[in-house]
Amino acid sequence: MTVAIAGQVWLGGRPLVAALDLRLTPGWTCLLGASGAGKSTLLRLLAGLPVAARLEGTRQAPDRIGWMAQADLLQPRLSVLGNLRLMARLRGEPLPRPRAEALLEAVGLAGRGADRPEALSGGERQRLALARVLADDAALVALDEPFSALDVPTRAAMQDLAAACLAGKTVVMVTHDPTEALRLGDRVLLLQDALLHEIPPLPGPRPVPLSDPGLAQAAAALLARMRRP
Ligand SMILES: Nc1ncnc2c1ncn2[C@@H]1O[C@H](COP(=O)(O)OP(=O)(O)OP(=O)(O)O)[C@@H](O)[C@H]1O
User: Fold this and answer.
1) Alpha carbon distances (Å) from 131 to 73, 89, 135, 151, 162
2) pTM for the full model?
3) Residue of the nearest CA to atom 17 in ligand 1?
4) Residue limits of the ABC transporter domain (predicted)?
5) How far apart are CA 19 and CA 182, in angstroms?
6) Which of 133, 160, 157, 131 minimizes the C-alpha distance to 144?
7) What are the pLDDT digits (tens) for 65-81?
8) In the chain, N or C: fewer CB atoms in 10 Å?
């Protein structure tokens, strides 16, 4: 499976991303940048979703792409199980109940299948959104700040869970959080001045433990680079 995007991204007459030549491989690629830099636009272009900008170039990606964002898009009138099985049902390939229940168990929601989304906490809703991505079983998964609305301990737990559940897939995630990018990213990219800059990743397995002595230092250095005038 090839996932690649190359060329220039234009917003009106302004280049949002110039000299783009991105090829994704299995593992996590984390995309950082200032607000308005164009991260979500680039992710949506990769995922084949509508954007205000225009790609002058080429894109190669699979048809089926897992998508998870800050807004979990759960249907309030469906149960947890109903939400999990919705996409498969719409595709006409129903998700067998035992598989759906195994997915709920994998994300720590065993026994919650009959609940309504309103009965879930913010972290639990994102667990369900993650289970929905897993149900799609797409080789490419695009994540747009999926954990940014969560409190810090819940966010760290979701990072660990997502890393475990999405192992082996090609994952591309937009985030504002340098620590998150460095914990999860096999590759870390900073979109700045309309160019993608490669940030050296931390050594060792993913997710990098929060206790890793190099993590805070690398995150501080990355934040300073992101904030430079
Ligand atoms: N629907 C739209 N119509 C016009 N311009 C848009 C639209 N959506 C985004 N833009 C513009 O495109 C540029 C990039 O936006 P994008 O959302 O990709 O940035 P971002 O880096 O993801 O920002 P943030 O971190 O704040 O979400 C911005 O200048 C934004 O104003």
Assistant:
1) 13, 15, 6, 20, 10
2) 0.93
3) 40
4) 1-218
5) 24
6) 133
7) 999 998 888 999 999 99
8) C
